[in-house]
Design a protein that fits this description.
Layout lengths: L1 H10 L15 H8 L7 E17 L3 E7 L4 E7 H4 L1 H8 L6 E10 L5 E12 L15 H6 L1 H7 L1 H23 L3 E2 L5 E2 L11 E4 L4 E5 L4 H9 L4 E9 L11 E10 L3 H20 L3 E4 L2 E4 L5 E4 H9 L9 H10 L10 H12 L8 E4 L11 E2 L2 E5 L1 E6 L2 E8 L4 H16 L10 H8 L5 E7 L2
Parallel strand pairs: 3-5, 6-10, 14-15
Antiparallel strand pairs: 1-2, 1-4, 2-3, 4-5, 7-9, 8-9, 10-11, 11-20, 12-13, 15-18, 16-17, 18-19, 19-20
Helix pairs in contact: 6-7, 7-9, 10-12, 11-12
């Protein structure tokens, strides 16, 4: 039926997909300027607006439509006596989902509904496919994520998420600019997949006839810039990890990474809190957010606790990577935590933390003191050679950030890379390799540095 309507319009010399349309106002601007208008009033303000038809009611000689643009919704009040019989019938042929442009006077109905009294209307784009059901929307999660465009049409919350994300990224940029960081862009195609534990995507460069990896992190190229003397750099960019997919994980996602010369992980924790607090204020107007039903003020200092202490809280046994491997395996077994044969004590402690404690970290919490085994790019803790000066930030039971005092000793970094290479050869597909070019950069000298990564999505 909709396609037949398009054919009829074209036969009558009307283009159902015109090239452009000039608005005088967005719907949000009209609401802002005339939202105070009392019921039953009609102004002399003539506006030209556009939007998608979401609701339509035919009441004989009157048609009421609700249209939506990016900013807001507004009602169209269409009277046959104003637009004339022919145009009234044309408007009545419009379907839900069609884009329409109208000119008319701003008014309110007797019930106080801000409206536009339409004088003329033009179809801007004919929707051939009907919209999802207004009341139920897209309830299937898979469909929502695969057909995001359809979800956005119906779901106001989904559109709001995009606005908050935009405001958050803009806030990060402002905060980092104010802290004298420089934004850069680094290569997406890497010779070695490093900077994180993840399976990479492979690609092939035809001219060079060589295998390359899509980056799994921004880290190693940003630290090359610290070696070059840039001191404070950051990047907001896409990274790619060839692993599980769910509503929590996407194979490609946006990371923000920053590196600050002459600082350590305590400086980076401080700027992490500053970034989160500023983003909340800029994106939603308050530092108080709802985390699983609990109001939480991000402006309060984030809790700091070592990973080994959280495991001890849950098991009742003090754990440390220096302890006997079999003793730690037995402890994991008693708490139903699966352990692989090749894992050392550090990896087992991490698995116990993830299984027993991570999901309970609702309020913002810096988990610190990760073991050396699971932190190949972090500096050893200055007070405990079995731990590193590393933290992860957890909110609502999810890891949102990761940072550390960066390892800048090229000799030790080579040993760590070689351990990673051995783990990879033993079957760990997420382990790294020996990145000779990065080691060469470190050999030129990298100053003391703190680094941070935040998954923006």
């Amino acid at each position: 039926r909709r396609i037949n309507r398009i054919d009829a319009m074209r036969a009558a010399g009307v283009n159902p997909y015109p090239y452009r349309f000039d608005r005088t106002h967005t719907l949000g601007e009209i609401r802002e300027q005339h939202g105070h208008l009392e019921a039953g009033n009609e102004t002399e303000t003539r506006v030209t607006v556009a939007g998608r038809i979401l609701l339509k009611r035919d009441q004989g000689k009157l048609i009421f439509c609700t249209i939506r643009d990016r900013a807001a919704d507004i009602q169209l009040f269409i009277s046959k006596s104003v637009v004339g019989d022919t145009e009234f019938d044309e408007i009545n042929e419009l379907d839900l989902g069609d884009w329409v442009g109208v000119t008319g006077l701003v008014m309110t109905t007797r019930k106080g509904e801000l409206s536009i009294k339409v004088e003329s209307a033009q179809l801007l784009s004919k929707a051939v496919r009907p919209l999802p059901d207004k009341w139920h929307g897209l309830t299937d999660v898979d469909t929502r994520y695969r057909q995001r465009y359809a979800d956005l049409i119906i779901n106001e919350e989904a559109r709001r998420t995009f606005e908050i994300r935009h405001a958050t990224i803009a806030s990060f940029r402002k905060t980092l600019h104010d802290n004298k960081f420089i934004e850069v862009e680094t290569p997406v195609l890497h010779m070695e997949a490093g900077g994180a534990h993840a399976r990479p995507f492979l690609t092939h460069h035809n001219t060079l006839d060589m295998q390359l990896f899509l980056r799994i992190a921004l880290e190693l190229h940003l630290k090359r810039l610290i070696v070059g003397g840039m001191e404070r750099v950051y990047e907001i960019g896409r990274v790619f990890r060839n692993e599980g997919i769910s509503t929590r994980h996407n194979p490609e996602f946006t990371m923000m990474e920053l590196y600050q010369a002459f600082g350590d992980y305590s400086d980076v924790m401080a700027i992490t809190e500053e970034l989160f607090v500023a983003a909340a204020r800029d994106a939603i107007g308050t530092t108080i957010v709802d985390i699983n039903g609990t109001p939480t003020d991000l402006a309060e200092p984030f809790r700091r606790v070592r990973m080994i202490d959280l495991v001890a809280e849950k098991t009742g046994v003090a754990v440390h990577p220096s302890m006997d491997l079999e003793e730690l395996r037995a402890l994991a077994a008693r708490h139903n935590v699966h352990v692989q044969q090749q894992w050392g004590t550090g990896k087992i402690i991490e698995e116990m933390f993830e299984a027993l404690a991570e999901h309970e970290l609702m309020a913002p919490t810096f988990v610190t003191g990760h073991t050396v085994e699971i932190s190949p790019l972090a500096r050893v803790d200055r007070n405990d050679p079995f731990l590193t000066e590393r933290f992860e930030l957890f909110v609502g039971g999810r890891e949102l950030a990761n940072g550390y005092s960066e390892l800048n000793d090229p000799i030790e970094q080579r040993l760590r890379f070689e351990d990673e290479q051995k783990a990879k050869e033993a079957g760990n597909a997420e382990a790294g390799t020996v990145d000779e070019d990065y080691l060469r950069a470190l050999e030129f000298g990298m100053p003391p540095t703190g680094g941070l990564g935040i998954g923006m999505d």
